[in-house]
Automatic annotation (TrEMBL):
NCBIfam families: PRK13009.1 (NF009557). Pfam families: M20_dimer, Peptidase_M20. CDD domains: M20_DapE_proteobac (cd03891). Zn(2+) 2 binds at residues 109, 140, 351. This is Succinyl-diaminopimelate desuccinylase. One of its GO terms (biological process) is lysine biosynthetic process via diaminopimelate. It comes from Croceicoccus marinus. Belongs to the peptidase M20A family. DapE subfamily.
Length: 388
């Protein structure tokens, strides 16, 4: 399948890594990607979406249309990266090959995957079908004006892929050992209990909110939300912050606050869990402010997961585990457009200093993405989106 005219994934990844793009990404890194896609026949739309504090965000939608009546396969991902931090062996935004590893911020999460997708698309003839790129500059941040805004631009132009592959780093020990066919939902809930401040020696003149918050948290912590499902682990509720902010030893505070994070499977919705926590909080004299960042979804094992698994087996010899574990990704939004699966390289160094991808894995990714896209474009089966 290799063509001498095909762009080198190492060169493409290096060009993207060399563009500092700490979230939210803007400018140069999108210039670089656009310059890669246009010579391949893609029509590129770049937009600036949203306002402060969660925006503005730059996004890119690129489409290479196939003949009428052919299928549409989408590659999706993000060009923004987390801050590099200190202690790197080399400049995090100066790509460097050491041995068989390409080092740089974004090498794993996830500029190398976007480079591999571009190289894969270059190998697929336009007559095979429509290929698109759904690329945001804000996945690592609030993500309010990233992929969600891209989906609005797609809807306005009647762009609806049949299937979508997100290039998140899903592999664990070896490239190809895991793909993600779903994710749990996520909701964070801020809790607050108000009382009446006063001197600790005169408690009858005050109202201490801490015991009521402690009782509330004890009840919440004791909740068993479920036992998991065939494809999802049990939902879990974690207390992630506790704050009183009282510098004095002899003062009963006026308020006490806490925060919860719930990762939940498809037995629940964010609204249902928010209502349940709110009821408990109010019963203890407190308030709850929930923020739902994503609902659970599952792309049922079938033709899509089978063709991706076959592509992985052909290039790595591994049978990938079908997983729904880990955190959230933009697949939680794209599942409303079409069936979506995530697959990418080993995630051991993502968000760490000296982030790096193995060069053989980068080359293998190109071949896997190409095989998967070709197979998806050749499918005759119809697919339904998840409306949740």
């Amino acid at each position: 399948m290799t063509d001498s005219a095909t762009p080198s994934p190492l060169e493409l990844a290096s060009r993207l890594i060399a563009c500092p793009s700490v979230t939210p990404a803007r400018g140069a890194v999108f210039d670089a990607l656009e310059a890669m896609l246009k010579p391949l026949g893609f029509n590129v739309l770049r937009t600036i979406d949203g306002d402060a504090p969660s925006g503005p965000v730059e996004n890119l939608l690129a489409v290479r249309p196939g003949p009428e009546g052919t299928r549409h396969f989408a590659f999706a991902g993000h060009l923004d990266v987390v801050p590099a931090g200190d202690g790197w062996t080399s400049d995090p935004f100066m790509p460097e090959v050491r041995g068989e590893m390409l080092h740089g911020r974004g090498a794993v999460d996830m500029k190398s995957q976007i480079a591999a997708m571009v190289a894969a698309a270059a190998r697929i003839p336009a007559e095979a079908g429509t290929i698109s790129f759904i690329i945001t500059g804000d996945e690592e941040g609030p993500a309010r004006f990233g992929t969600l805004a891209l989906m609005e631009h797609m809807a306005a132009r009647d762009i609806v892929p049949d299937l979508c592959l997100v290039g998140e780093p899903t592999s664990v020990a070896r490239l190809g050992d895991m793909m993600k066919i779903g994710r749990r939902g996520s909701v964070n809930i801020w809790l607050e209990v108000h009382g009446n401040e006063g001197h600790v020696a005169y408690p009858h003149l005050a109202d201490n909110p801490i015991p009521r918050l402690v009782a509330m948290l004890a009840e919440l912590d004791a909740l068993e939300l479920d036992d998991g499902t065939d494809w999802f682990q049990p939902s879990n509720l974690e207390i992630t912050d506790l704050e009183v902010g009282n510098p004095a030893t002899n003062v009963i505070p006026a308020a006490a606050r806490a925060r919860l994070s719930i990762r939940f499977n498809d037995l629940h919705t964010g609204a249902q869990l928010s209502a349940r926590v709110t009821e408990i909080a109010e019963r203890h004299g407190g308030t709850a402010h929930p923020v739902i960042s994503g609902e659970p979804f599952l792309t049922e094992p079938g033709a899509f997961s089978a063709l991706l698994a076959e592509a992985i087996r052909a290039e790595t010899g591994l049978e990938p585990e079908l997983s729904t574990g880990g955190g959230t990704s933009d697949a939680r939004f794209l599942k409303s457009v079409c069936p979506v699966i995530e697959f990418g390289p080993c995630n051991a160094t993502m968000h760490k200093r000296d982030e790096a991808i193995a060069l053989p894995d980068l080359d293998a990714l190109v071949r896997i993405y190409e095989r998967a896209a070709r197979a998806a474009l050749a499918l005759q089966e119809s697919f339904a989106r998840d409306p949740r």
